[in-house]
Structures are given as C-alpha cells and as structure tokens.
Amino acid sequence: MSAEMIVNGLIYFAVLLLSLSFHEFGHAWTALRCGDPTAQRLGRVSLNPIVHADPVGTVLLPLIMIFSGSGLIGWAKPVPFDPRNLRHPGRDDILISAAGPAANLLLALLGAMLIRLTQGFGAEGAVGAFFSTVLPFTVRINVLLAVFNLIPIVPLDGSWILVHLLPKDIGQRYRAFGEQWGFALLLVLLFTGVAWTWIRAASGVVLPILSAIAGTPLR
Fold first, then answer.
1. Residue 106, Cβ neighbours under 10 Å: how many?
2. Which of 31, 48, 104, 127 is a plausible cystine mate for 142, CB 3.0–4.6 Å?
C-alpha cells in the first residue's frame, strides 16, 4: 500500500467522521430545541467525533473497509432523548428523526456550493486535490448517509418517521415488530441488494441537483 493510498484513506476516514458527527449533532440539537436536554447533558450537542464515536461502527469497520477497498459504511452512537420532555411528542419525534438525514443533506449542499466557488481558482497540488477529490466525496458520502438513514426499517431514522405517519395502532405494531426484527430485516435488505436499489434510486434524484449546483458531475 502506497503512502498516497494511506493518506487518501485517512482523508476519507476524516470526512466520514465529520459526516457522522454532523448527523448525530443534528439529532441532538433538534432534541434540545424541542425541549429535551438529555443529549445536551451527555455532551452530544457537539461536532466533536469523540462524543459520538462507536468503536466498531465509527472506527474499526470504516478503516477496514477503506483500506481493503471494499466500499464504505459506518455508524455512530445513537443520540438518546426522552419523549416525555418533548413539547409536541409526535411532531417532535419526527423532527428529531429527520434532523440527522437533513444535516447530512445540508453538508452535501455546502460541499456542492464550495465546489462551485472553487472551480475558477485553478488550484494545484494538495489544494487542487482537496477541491477535486475530497469535496465531491463529501457530497457523495453525505447523500449516501441521508438516503440510507431514511429507509423505514428499525433502527434507521426513517422507521421512526414512518411510525408517526401511520395510524396509531398500526404504527405501534410496526414499532414493536421493528424493535424485535428490524435489524435482521435490514441485514437481509442489504445483502439481497434491495436496500442498495433504494439508495441508488434516491441518490439518483438528489445527486443531479447537487451536480447542477456544483457545476460538475458528482456521480
């Protein structure tokens, strides 16, 4: 493995850390705004990756995948919140759940805007490599995190949004089913490719918009 591959791998890992931290910060900040200080008391209203890091999902697995060339996937510790503290429990639960993917889409949008702003600079060397490689990767990984987390399967954010959009009795049954079988179902969807079909379809809607903003293809 060359020194360049190691450096690039570490840069990609740093971008993933930032993206996961931004995602969890979105959850924590929104929970606080909705009246629940649980995450704040635990120091989770922060962009510091250390407070959000899961040893396996944030560090070990991403590093193994990056340096083995087998793709990239990762997760951080879920942000806890107490629904009893929320001013409007149903609505606020949806807002808190949606805030993580929304934070990733915001970061992707900022990346696309930076690409547009820096196109005329003609930067070379390390700076040019950053603009041409790291920023597009930042956009793509954040779109991936957003659309993946919107899959309505427990433990992903989309499941909690769906629970509140369904009729109350059906939503409660879906929540109970998800808590028991959701993770296994998610693994089945991943390994059969069904989840990736959704990810490609949703990304195919979002990335062209961001590409137009960036002024360059981001696929």
1. 15
2. 104
